């Protein structure tokens, strides 16, 4: 007689499984916790209302002397590098995945004052292919930290970027470093000096083996409304009525692509912004400085449209700058809303859609 394997080992039905479960429970009720743990700790879960103290008997003392061996490390689970079958959602490429705002002190070159060590916020991302589950985020930090003691430049950023592209086996990557850069600024007439702080970001992007460098600056200035100025002067001239034009703290975010060649220093892009709009907010003032600032504002009254075009004029004239974008926000003292403008040059920053909160980020905290 021929015997088929399926007949010799039939698949158990629910009744057979329940009978086996009853046998396990009967045995577990009289077995010691050690016997249960030795067979399978999960059996403890089969006992109705059973205490879990024997599932399993875990130590609650931190193992100070435990040392990780290579074999133990190799046994650790690594879901991020798991097979594509673990991917949740659509198997789609991610343009950016990584970490944002890990901070550390970094040395930067200054144009005039040697090197400065500044707290730096770093964002590092890589692309993720459609068939890969994820990345080990900490590798970006570990790769970056290999270079953290160096005085930073775009060349050092390129080395750090190359390291984490290799470490994470990725095609494209991005590295951004944000700092608050101090510069001494002299008052308009009294001769006082004080530190002005500029929010600056350096960005390095590599796509398909092509590297591109960017710099971003938030420039804070005062804007006096030309219309309000004329209306105030009209009240004085026609009715002898004292009136003051409205002016407000304003912010322009200038983003530029850097062309290979001469270095564009932090100080250079700050001075470029000052030439475009000289009414930068002041640090140290006496009465003569405050009066001078009022006169300077009157001599440089601007709408938000004017501001964008004035910055554009200076950016176009600098051969170290390629494509750029200017986003300006005049935070009105007349209205309960802001006046804003965006100007782009070239394809790099052109976009049909803007971040819904873009203009809300143009705020200078006092």
Explained architecture:
This protein is an alpha+beta fold. The protein has three domains: 23-51, no CATH class; 93-171, no CATH class; 187-365, Urate Oxidase. It is 30% helix and 29% strand. The chain is built from ten helices and nine strands. It has helices spanning 5-8, 14-30, 33-39, 70-75, 137-145, 154-167, 226-239, 266-276, 287-299, 304-316, and strands at residues 94-109, 115-128, 151-152, 173-186, 193-207, 210-224, 247-258, 321-330, 339-345. A nine-stranded mixed beta sheet has the order 3-1-2-4-5-6-7-8-9. A hairpin with a 6-residue loop joins strand 4 (173-186) and strand 5. The longest helix has 17 residues, at 14-30. It is elongated, with a radius of gyration of 32 Å. The chain starts with a helix and ends in a 21-residue tail after the last strand. The relative contact order is 0.08.
Please tally the β strands and state the result: 9
Q: Could you spell the SSE succession in H and E letters?
A: HHHHEEHEHEEEHEHHHEE
Tell me the helix content. 25-40%
Low-pLDDT ranges: none
Query: What class do helices, strands and sheet pairing give?
Result: alpha+beta
